[in-house]
Amino acid sequence: MIKKLDILVIQSFLRPFLPTFLVMILFFLMQMVWMYIDDLAGRGIEWYYILELLFYWSAGVLPIALPISVLLSSLTTFGTFGENNELAAMKSAGIPLFRIMRPLIVFIFFLSIGAFLFYNFVIPVANLKSEALVRNISKQKPALNIRQGIFNADIENYSIKVGNKTGEDGNNLENIIIYDHTDNSGNTKMTIAKTGLMAITEDSRYMEIFLYDGHAYEEVKAKTRQEREKKPFIKASFDEAIIRFDLRQFQTGDLRESNSRTFYMMNVNQLDHAADSLINLTNWVKDEFAKNFSDKYYFSQVTLDTAKPQHVNPTILANLESMAMKKRAVENALRLARSNTEFLNQKIEEYDWRERNITRHFLEWHKKFSLSIACFVLFFIGAPLGAIIRKGGIGMPVVISFLVFITYHIINTSFEKTGREMVIEPWAAVWIGTLILAPFGFLLTYKAATDSSILNSEFYTKIVRFVVSLFKRKKDKASA
């Protein structure tokens, strides 16, 4: 009897779960296709590459499709039990709600383990393969990969950041920053420009960026302290310049090849190792900058014998004889101050970028585990909620499921965004949404197990009548 009941519950759950899961994957997959349809269409790419890309994208949308499928299926299953009086029959036979839910709890447990393993080992590979396919398919149009507001390191030895892209093909660029790492000395060479134009040569071997109204900076590695004081870096201004990038690294016969790996292409162990390496590198860069900066700018105290302070005017400019020397000293001081301010601002942006990169690694690490827990939490919301409302089918369960999932998704997205901005800790940004909904799941499970009428209209009518009677009594006393 009990085994038949377990089989019945699992079969009743799988009937809506499998089609719902496939429909959700297809729904979110269409969003991915719609996002890149203009960039992939008309490329002359073989059809099997497109199918392979869709397969990898379908694996990537599983973290969104699985929780909502669990929520909707559990709500529909127990709502149908309640609507057909099967739930009442089970309880009248002495079977409590937790015993009815037990086979699904075991099923969700193994499903959560499988979801974690899939998220940890399969999805990173799928993300890597899909990114490689998109990058190689779009090799004749790098504007697809050079996105607004983020640094792009697809081209070897260069980091490119574009503030805005306009034009029909997105080749008109604004607020351009290019770091040159060809000498492996860090961010010592930088070029910035207000506007630019990106184009590909006819043989597709080079990408050319025409820069307009910009500056080029190069940090000079001086050997002595005196040299560092005179020329800390070189600055050159230009009205028009051109930078040519070699694209032969993208010209490969196999569109599946990839040479880069980012945080969303790593499993838990790789994220741990990468985060530790980034933290150590960031600390080393900060220490080196502090050491070099303290050596470059220092205050020295001279002795009375060498300085003869009785002939030194406390006002520095008063010690210069001619007005031309005073003017030159002021101009040099202002120039150095402006240059050093720009240099420090660039360093601040670099440190901020490094910290954000480390934060994204920790966010992705916690997200590997949050999917499994989210499936459990949403199951304990959907199952008791279905037992309370006692409605099956695709009407009210679908509406309630989407309302609950949208609430969960908005909370998660909002807190994850604050985590990316480093307002809160990465673990809090990922887990707060689940921690907020978990008490509701326990409350609904308790109410369903005790046959609560929490969603019965008569229950709320009694509450309203009670509140109205209280106000009426208070008004009668006041009038008396």
Task: Describe what you observe in this structure.
The protein has 480 residues and is of the alpha+beta class. The chain has three domains: 1-139 and 263-449, no CATH class; 144-250, no CATH class; 451-480. The protein is 63% helix and 12% strand. It has a six-stranded antiparallel β-sheet, with no helix packed on it. The protein starts with a helix and ends with a helix.
State the separation between the terminal residues, measured CA to CA: 66 Å
Mean pLDDT across the residues is 81
**Major beta sheet, specifics?**
6 strands, antiparallel
Based on CA atoms alone, the radius of gyration comes out at 32 Å
Q: What is the oligomeric state here?
A: single chain
**What is the element string, with H for helices and E for strands?**
HHHHHEEEEEHEHHHHHH
Give the domain tally: 3
Low-confidence stretches at least 5 residues in length (pLDDT < 50)?
140-144, 299-309
Structural class: alpha+beta
Shape: elongated
Give, in spatial order, the strands making up the sheet with the most strands: 1-2-3-4-5-6
Strand content: 5-15%
Q: How many E-type strands?
A: 6
Q: Can you count the helices?
A: 12
Tell me the helix content: 55-70%
Helix and strand topology:
Blueprint: H1 2-40, H2 47-60, H3 62-83, H4 86-92, H5 97-137, E1 151-152, E2 158-166, E3 172-180, E4 189-200, E5 206-219, H6 225-230, E6 233-246, H7 268-296, H8 304-307, H9 323-389, H10 396-420, H11 426-449, H12 457-479
